[in-house]
Write a structure and sequence with these properties.
This protein has 475 residues and is of the alpha+beta class. 35% of the residues lie in helices and 27% in strands. Strands 3-9-10-16-13-12-11 form a 7-stranded mixed sheet. Strands 20-19-21-22-23 form a 5-stranded mixed sheet, with helices on both faces. A 3-stranded antiparallel sheet has the order 5-4-6. The longest helix has 20 residues. The structure holds glycyl-adenosine-5'-phosphate. Glycyl-adenosine-5'-phosphate binds next to β10, β13, β16 and α12. The site of glycyl-adenosine-5'-phosphate has 19 residues, from β10, β13, β16 and α12.
Length: 475
């Protein structure tokens, strides 16, 4: 059984052992802060994506989804402010040459202090970050004798800004090559398409545009497994509103997004809101939804009131008018924007952390335990496992028929090897909510045993009912 301290380590190992997440290019010793999703991870990730996409687009008549390219015209990033502002204050240790994000370095130190002292240090840091006071941040690090974890010294350089965007060349060297960026957020693909979507979809403000896609950031300190990656996926929605109504919509989206998280059955005590102290260059209000990971409360999603900053900037840089004519008030304006932005990989990590449980099932007669992923049934990679009790007597044929009847509706898994108990344990470990066993009684009365993952209870149900039982839980 793992303790609280090593639970996170156990989760990481579990993700690898059961085909959820692998280190990228592992056979070459891996690539730092880049990960691949395995056979069950890819399914779980897709299910999270689908759940978000459906709740945003299908369930909101005034939100449509798009899929913009990762590569965008370089001027996009000048206009959005990312070329000039998308940077973090960094500091290097002169002895080890290791570079740190200043806030991460100080946060790491604060965690080692008693709670009150740690909080006081973080409050000082927040104040200095808000003022962009780099000299003050360096003094804070020195005064607190914060050491480099590699060299163990306090021999620090000045604090400098470091841009997080990756760049590459478009076109071959023989052609005229130009530098372009890998997008650091998906949002700009929505902003530059605002008029395309508004006009072709005949959308009326207030309305939203949603998108899921890859984003790239050259994170200097990439830690905590898939929590902070260099290549990751975002699920973002920009909601365009009439100027002056942004506060009201900001509150509405804060509430709605929290309800989305809670709709997956997570304990509400595991979530809280955290207001931003230092606002991004485009925002007039911003809040994070934080979840209590095994390593503490951390951001999963941001809700930002982005004003009319982005559309106005694209209007100015492209020299194309980006306005909306509001027939209700007979006015042209540049809409204001409320953004909801959630990291898909972070939501994946949250889902696994929230589901992972080690249970001691020992009785006086027998030692026993299991690891179970109590995933919401609609997100589980496999919904139903089908087991013939033996490989003979016509049981596999009945099991195969059940598989064929269910496969078109949801993901099923067939297995006839090993004792039933061991087969159950393997499904518990990947979070399969239902296992069905076909036995000799099935041949007599057409019933099967259905076993429920969380309670481990088993009941006899008609074979013909299995598909509907599962469908009722996953819709
Ligand atoms: N368009 C706004 C935006 O990108 P953000 O707070 O920088 O805002 C939004 O990112 C979300 O993207 C975060 O709440 C987080 O879930 C996810 N995210 C950001 N950086 C990430 C990284 N390096 N690795 C994984 N997820 C990340």
């Amino acid at each position: 059984m793992s303790t609280d301290q090593n639970k996170f380590q156990a989760i990481i190992s579990h993700c690898k052992e059961y085909g959820f997440v692998f280190q990228s290019s592992e056979i070459y010793d891996g690539l730092s802060a880049v990960y691949d999703y395995g056979q069950y991870g890819a399914e779980l990730k897709k299910n999270i994506k689908d759940y978000w996409w459906k709740s945003m687009t299908q369930l909101h008549e005034n939100i449509v989804g798009i899929d913009a390219a990762i590569f965008m015209h370089p001027t996009t990033w000048k206009a959005s402010g990312h070329v000039d502002n998308f940077s973090d204050p960094m500091i290097d240790n002169r002895d080890s040459n290791k570079r740190y994000r200043v806030d991460h370095l100080i946060e790491g130190h604060a965690e080692t202090l008693p709670e009150a002292a740690g909080n006081a240090l973080l409050a000082q840091m927040d104040e200095l970050l808000k003022e962009n006071d780099f000299a003050g941040l360096k003094s804070l690090i020195e005064e607190n004798k914060i050491k480099c974890s590699v060299s163990g010294t306090v021999n620090w350089t000045e604090v400098r800004q470091f841009n997080l965007m990756f760049s590459t060349q478009l076109g071959s060297v023989t052609e005229e090559a130009s530098e372009i960026f890998l997008r650091p957020e998906t949002a700009q693909g929505i902003f530059v398409n605002f008029l395309n979507v508004q006009k072709t979809g005949r959308m009326k403000v207030p309305f939203g545009i949603a998108q899921i896609g890859k984003a790239f950031r050259n994170e200097i300190v990439a830690r905590q497994f898939i929590f902070r990656m260099r290549e990751f996926e975002q699920m973002e929605m920009q909601f365009f509103v009439r100027p002056g109504t942004q506060q009201e919509w900001y509150e509405k989206w804060k509430e709605e997004r929290m309800q989305w998280h809670l709709s997956l059955g997570t304990d509400p005590a595991k979530y809280h809101f955290k207001d931003h102290i230092k606002l991004a260059h485009y925002a007039d209000a911003a809040v994070d939804i934080e979840y209590e990971f095994p390593f503490g409360f951390k951001e999963v999603e941001g809700i930002h009131s982005r004003t009319d900053f982005d559309l106005k900037q694209h209007q100015e840089y492209s020299k194309k008018k980006i306005q909306y004519f509001d027939t209700e008030i007979n006015q042209n304006y540049v809409p204001y924007v409320i953004e909801t932005s959630i990291g898909l990989d972070r939501m994946f990590l949250l889902t696994i952390c929230n589901a992972y449980e080690e249970q001691d099932l020992s009785t006086p007669e027998k030692q026993d335990s299991r690891v179970v992923l109590k995933l919401p049934a609609k997100l589980a990679p496999v919904k139903l496992a089908v087991f013939p009790l033996t490989k003979k007597d016509g049981l596999p044929e009945i099991a195969r028929e059940l598989m064929d009847g269910c496969k078109p509706y949801f993901h099923c898994f067939y297995e006839e090897k090993d004792a039933i108990g061991r087969r159950y344990r393997r499904q518990d470990a990947i979070g399969t909510p239902f296992c069905v066993t076909i036995d000799h009684q099935t041949k007599e009365d057409g019933t099967v045993t259905i076993r429920h993952r969380d309670s481990m209870e088993q009941e006899r149900v008609p074979l013909s009912e299995v598909r509907n039982i599962v469908l009722n839980k996953i819709m």
